[in-house]
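Before relying on records like the one below, remember that each one covers exactly one chain. Contacts with other chains, cofactors or solvent are not represented anywhere in the record.
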Amino acid sequence: MYQYYGGERVVNLLHLCETMTYRWVNESEIKAPLDVFKKFARRNNFVIRTRRVRRGVTQYMLKRTDIPLLLISDTEMSNTFNFMDIADLHIGHPDFNENALREKLQYAVDNDISFVFIAGDIFEGCASETSESHYFEQIQLAYDIFKDYPLVYFAINGNHEYSFEQLGLKNPIERLEQMLNKVFISFFYFDTYIMDFIICGVIKRVMHVERQDFNKKTIYAQQKLRIFDEDGLLERTYKGETYPVRFFQVGHIHVNVQIYYPKKKIYISQPGAFLGKLAFDSGNIIRGRVINQRVFLT
């Protein structure tokens, strides 16, 4: 628990780490306690670099060294796939559209969707230490929704989940996982904001992207892929086998967009947000097959 209040405002540590990836930042620009920032960066697999510049100023820069990886479906089991991408539910927000989310999840049940991936910001978050009651209300509402749809869910953190932790509260997705597992809903929470899943012999990367350059959010997803490429993180080795990244699901961006990045043969999915009227356009269904690590959508 970080126990950092900052008055009535919490710090977006995820955004801070994203902006500091390959960018030197003065210590004075880090608007969070230094020990909190360092713990968060290491928790999310960053190496912290430091340097001293003139007049005794210390600067910090981050480099990602690893991404958690999980095998959920290999080509030995099947070379066909179908899954749903959702993100940014913002349960607890005044504009959260519960009906739209329920429609999407019912569609997944009716159409035998194998997996549902949630790229962060399931919850709206809390802004102050007085928000504990709001915290439990959000968790209860999420539970009441997900328990009605017996699917297989994989969920990661967004910046809003981390806001609870800064107030000394347990991560709400972790609590939700425990509650749903008790009623036999296969809901899996991963304590990270980026996660790789092996599906049919290729990798699906799920990430809550925070940083935007000139607010060109779609383009930033491609920029992020180039950074991963420079770090050698567009393919992974698992038990002696090499798997390429073929899917990149992006949370935080509240506009539903699907694009293909031909240079690296990667499909980018931005499933939008469940806020207001736009919620009915949120969520992407992706189906197809993998042949020799090439993806063919159907």
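The chain has seven helices and 16 strands.
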